[in-house]
Design brief:
The complex is a heterodimer of chains A (417) and B (106). With 417 residues, chain A is α+β, with helices and mostly antiparallel strands. Chain A has a single domain, classed as Orthogonal Bundle (Cytochrome p450), CATH 1.10.630.10. Chain A has 15 helices and twelve strands. In chain A, a hairpin with a 2-residue loop joins strand 6 and strand 7. In chain A, helix 5 runs antiparallel to helix 6, helix 8 packs across helix 9 and helix 11 crosses helix 13. Chain B has 106 residues and is α+β, with helices and mostly antiparallel strands. The chains are: A alpha+beta (417), B alpha+beta (106). At the A-B interface, helix 3 and helix 4 of A face helix 2 of B. The complex binds protoporphyrin IX containing FE and FE2/S2 (inorganic) cluster.
Chain lengths: 417, 106
């Protein structure tokens, strides 16, 4: 994904400026510099529901406490997901219909057609192949030698997992990553030259997947395309290319950066909390609670946004019909009134799934079980092989207001004795 | 007070005592009955406390709100006796109720 605000001034200390209508937290640099926590801490204590009057995204409300975020998320009739679910507005004239950015009743109908594909029963069938492929990647890594975990492991693993999910021709799997980047890019960033170029690549994507679809009609399989092509409720989807493409892109994009950054984030977190890493070494069964805790700690998507459909009070503030409302999951996941020691990674929490990273309500992440399964298998295979995945330098973080992640993470592997 | 009988997907039984006012979800979670995740803590916004109410008891567990209907609808495994257990309040009337747990929460 791309970020257009490259040249902003970098204020790092939230207490160096007044908490007024110019207090603006939706800045990629805050996440890239890893200074955002103090900004949201200030919002949570002094202005839990805050109105920023001026920003490159226009005016917006920031909702920063766990309970208030839950309120917005579960009241989908008061807070609409249309036309977009991030603080950035869609500019392109070729929007893809995706149910993540649709309200009822269309949302429910579309989600119901694709969700069986990622139902736990089906995930169980994919687990073996995913484990095998993860094993192969890990076995190919150098021991005792510095390399970039993001490139060699997180990206490669996520791409292979997407390929597995779609049973996509394995050698061409990087096409999936490319389409994910293209779909979320805008003209003039580093990904595509122009809107026409973007469109051309997306046509290529839908053509490719249409071919796969026709090859699979009448041949039941456990991959997503076979499932869609052979299920009664979706068997005509291919005749509506825009909708087919929208759904494909949603699945590709939804599971790409988020999972990738959770894989990197887990390694970083365990290095920052070595006593937790020790606990894990002694008891691999803790992977079950480690995984949701990594997803909370990392919070791969900083926020989701809504638009108020009527005047509504949240946390004592009157939000007006038509206002943009940003739910800062990254802040709710550090809310000390709900989560004990929220800044720390604690791998054996009693209620590890009590976090906002997947959202709540009717748009709650459809891939949440899939994401957890991928991370669980990844960590099971890592713990079988390595004594220590040691972070040996500063990570480079992503410059983005939505995607919280890493572009580089230097590590050295230590094998088991 | 009511005795609640949970039947796991494996056929195994867990029997718990629950007091009035708590939810069937709480009765399971507080007593360590596996199979209910309840990620949202009872806010009717995650659908991971899905249960199948024994047909004979369906008329006693109250009606389904719009919010519960919305969340139940997300589940491809929804059955005619599906409910979200955080939305069923325990009353004396439920004494002996049989609740079946699904194989997976989604
Ligand atoms: C750790 C990894 C992941 C995180 C943190 C994450 C986060 C989220 C969040 C916050 C939403 C809610 C959107 C909203 O409320 O507006 C969402 C929705 C969604 N996610 Fe994920 N996601 C992850 C992995 C995946 C994967 C692997 C898939 C692939 C199947 C996926 C597919 C989707 C879809 C289809 C939706 C739309 C659901 C709807 O609108 O009903 N996600 N995700
Ligand atoms: S606990 Fe989340 S819906 Fe019941």
């Amino acid at each position: 994904m791309s970020e257009t605000t490259m040249t902003e001034e970098r204020i790092t200390d939230p207490y160096s400026i007044p908490l007024d209508g110019d207090f603006h937290v939706a800045r990629g640099s805050l996440f890239q510099d890893n200074v955002h926590e103090a900004w949201f801490e200030r919002l949570r204590t002094e202005a839990p529901v805050h109105y920023c009057e001026n920003s490159e995204f226009g005016a917006y409300w920031s909702v920063s406490k766990y309970e208030d975020i839950m309120f917005v998320d579960k009241n989908h009739d008061l807070f609409s997901s249309e036309p977009a679910i991030t603080i950035m507005d869609m500019q392109e004239d070729f929007p893809l219909p995706m149910f993540i950015a649709m309200d009822q009743p269309k949302h429910d109908v579309q989600r119901a057609t694709v969700s069986p594909a990622v139902q736990p029963v089906n995930l169980a069938k994919m687990e073996g192949l995913i484990r095998e492929r993860i094993g192969t990647i890990l076995d190919g890594l150098p021991i005792g030698e510095e390399f970039d975990w993001v490139d060699r492991v997180s990206i490669e693993l996520t791409t292979q997992m997407l390929a597995t999910l779609f049973d996509f021709p394995f050698e061409e799997r990087r096409k999936l990553t490319r389409w994910s980047d293209v779909a979320t890019s805008s003209p003039g960033d580093n990904t595509v030259e122009s809107e026409d170029a973007r469109r051309a690549e997306l046509y290529e994507c839908v053509e490719y997947f249409t071919r796969l679809w026709h090859e699979r009609v009448g041949k039941p399989g456990t991959d997503l395309i076979s499932m869609l092509a052979n299920a009664e409720s979706t068997k005509d989807l291919v005749n509506n290319p825009a909708e087919y493409l929208g759904n494909l892109i949603l699945l590709i994009v939804g599971g790409n950066d988020t999972t990738r950054n959770s894989i990197s984030g887990g390694v970083l977190a365990l290095n920052q909390f070595p006593a937790e890493y020790d606990k894990l070494r002694q008891d691999h069964s803790l992977i079950r609670t480690l995984v949701p805790e990594i997803i909370r700690w990392q919070t791969p998507l900083t926020h989701m946004r809504r638009v108020a459909t009527q005047d509504t009070e949240v946390g004592g503030k009157l939000i007006k019909k038509g206002d943009k409302v940003v739910m800062w999951y990254v802040s709710g996941n550090r809310d000390e009134t709900v989560i004990d020691r929220p800044k720390e990674l604690v791998i054996d929490r009693k209620k590890p799934r009590e976090h906002l990273s997947f959202g709540f309500g009717i748009h709650r992440c459809m891939g949440n079980r899939l994401a957890e399964m991928q991370l669980r298998v990844t960590w099971e295979e890592i713990m079988k092989r390595f004594e220590f995945v040691e972070v040996v330098g500063e990570p480079v973080r992503t410059l983005h207001t939505l995607i919280k992640g890493y572009t580089e993470l230097p590590v050295v592997l230590h094998s088991k004795k | 007070m009511a005795e609640i009988i949970f039947i796991h997907h494996s056929g195994e039984k867990s029997v718990v005592e629950a007091s009035d006012g708590m939810s069937v979800m709480n009765a399971a979670v507080d007593n360590g009955v596996a199979g209910i995740d309840a990620d949202c803590g009872g806010e009717c916004s995650c659908a991971t406390c899905h249960v199948l109410v024994d047909e004979g008891w369906l008329s006693k567990v109250g009606s389904i709100s719009t919010q519960e209907e919305n969340m139940l609808d997300l589940n491809p495994d929804r059955q005619s006796n599906s409910r979200l257990s955080c939305q069923i309040a325990v009353t004396d009337e439920l004494d002996g109720i049989v609740i079946n747990l699904p194989e997976f929460q989604y």
